[in-house]
Specification:
This protein is α/β, with parallel strands linked by helices and about 475 residues long. It is about 35% helix and about 15% strand. It contains 16 helices and 14 strands.
Length: about 475
């Protein structure tokens, strides 16, 4: 049993690790708090059982095998979970995970995010829910922008106030996340209200899209038209999710209307609102934001391969290059990969635009201690290092349905997981993952593979191509 700021909680034990689940860090973001900034959790009397995850935030079902969200789960979704190897101890490094899901889906209860094995390596692991999809990202008059990011900041404040009770050191907090979670880490580096709440950061596959308020407002207005005169403050959350998903499927592929986002329909992205998020992470960190925070940032070699396998339609390489890439991209890509088919070049382009080059250029821009990596191990299931492959390796959760889909039969994954966990927990403890630091001139990069290596600028062609234009906010 542990006492946190709102009351006492009783957890359970899992293989020698003390586990606490479903602890509220904020009040339900519905009812009087609908579409509002998070409000600290209301205190409770007695001892609260903390043995089950809290409800998921409202969302569509995008990942195969994930149960469909229903309001019957409950709407008190802003909860936190803690795994600690030494409940009575003190001073352990703390690692706070932020899940991904294209900003449209995700929750901390996914089996691949089980923190027990990572905690067994000597850290306190924290996961939490934050609002996704409409509730967290849509732009509505009268509602604060980037509510999802305000949730994350509130969760990090909870960690500062409470993690010592679980054996953790509030002065040694590492935030880490993948995909949309890595986008969140980049935003936290940039957000003034997050300063002082964490001390190291790991960003695994940072997405490129960031929206202006005008873009966010246009997307929200477009899907709200499907609901007529319904107010977002009173509409059922499932209605808002359904409307946004229908809009995404049926309308967002219109390039004339939605520009580059037609090539990877994402109705939601972080909004550069000038307050919660003053600028894009690349600009903010280049101006010194997060310079006191050591950063690991990297990506998988074949980020887009899984998406291509899931949607094997003919590609229009020339049109996509014109819409997404810097000038002369066709020449650069063909020079780097002579003889490559259009489908291969399309995969490289989409990998660069979505994740690889946003991550690489964040490493270039960061003015503090920086470490870069690339996962080059090809999973047997895809014959490539696909997007998300690093998540089960990070947690050591190698026996989940998602892992089976990503890996296939891969006994060698155990050794790769050891590499990730060793580097990540060492970084959380010391600020150094165990390989050479990064600078934009040499671009020293650690390769995670069966035989790990440290190399110079493994994606030099792409980095040179994208470095001048970068990733401006989408208007």
């Amino acid at each position: 049993m542990v006492r946190v700021s709102a009351g006492a909680v009783r957890g359970s034990e899992q293989d020698g690790i003390s586990v606490f689940k479903g602890i509220p860090y904020a009040r339900s973001p519905f009812g009087e708090h609908r579409l509002a900034a998070p409000v600290p959790a209301e205190p409770w009397e007695g001892t609260r059982e903390a043995t089950a995850f809290g409800p998921r935030p409202p969302q569509a079902t995008l990942i195969a095998g994930t149960p469909e969200w229903s309001p019957a789960e409950g709407l008190d979704c802003l909860t936190v979970n803690v795994w600690t190897p030494d409940l009575g101890g003190s001073g352990l490094p703390v690692m706070v995970w932020i899940y991904g899901g294209a900003y449209r889906t995700g929750s901390a209860d996914h089996p691949v995010y089980d923190g027990a094995r990572l905690a067994g390596d000597g850290v306190v692991v924290v996961t939490f829910n934050y609002r996704v999809s409409v509730e967290g990202f849509a732009w509505f008059d009268g509602a604060p922008a980037n509510r999802w990011l305000l949730d994350q900041i509130a969760a990090l404040r909870w960690v500062q106030e409470n993690i010592a009770a679980f054996g953790g050191d509030p002065g040694k907090v590492t935030v880490f996340g993948e995909s949309a979670g890595a986008g969140a880490v980049a935003c936290l580096l940039s957000a003034p209200s997050a300063r002082g709440l964490f001390h190291r950061a790991i960003a695994q596959s940072v997405p490129g899209p960031f929206y202006t308020p005008a873009m966010a407002r246009a997307v929200s207005a477009a899907f709200m038209r499907r609901l007529g005169d319904v107010s977002p403050y009173t509409a059922a959350p499932e209605e808002l999710v359904a409307a946004s998903e229908a809009f995404t499927e049926e309308e967002m592929g219109d390039e004339a209307r939605w520009g580059p986002m037609a090539y990877c329909p994402m109705p939601f992205a972080p909004v550069v609102d000038g307050e919660v998020l003053p600028d894009t992470p690349w600009n903010a960190v280049a101006d010194g934001a997060g310079s006191d925070i050591p950063l690991i940032v990297g990506f998988t070699r074949d980020e887009f391969r899984m998406f291509a396998a899931m949607n094997p339609e003919p590609v229009d390489l020339a049109r996509t290059l014109k819409a997404l890439a810097p000038p002369d991209a066709d020449v650069v890509y063909r020079a780097a990969r002579p003889g490559a088919a259009k489908a291969e070049l399309y995969e490289v382009l989409m990998s660069d635009w979505l994740f690889r080059m946003p991550s690489a250029l964040l490493a270039d821009a960061h003015t503090g201690p920086t470490y870069a990596y690339e996962l080059t191990w090809a999973s047997p299931a895809f014959g490539a290092a696909v997007h998300g492959l690093d998540v089960p390796l990070t947690f050591g959760t190698l026996d989940t349905p998602l892992t089976a889909m990503l890996f296939g039969e891969a006994p060698e994954a155990e050794g790769l997981s050891w590499q990730f966990r060793t580097a990540w927990t060492r970084f959380a403890a010391t600020g150094d993952p165990g390989w050479p630091g990064y600078d934009p001139v040499e671009a020293s990069t650690h390769l995670f593979d069966l035989e790990p290596a440290d190399v110079l600028d493994p994606e030099a062609f792409s980095r040179a191509l994208w470095s001048e234009r970068g990733f401006p906010v989408i208007d």
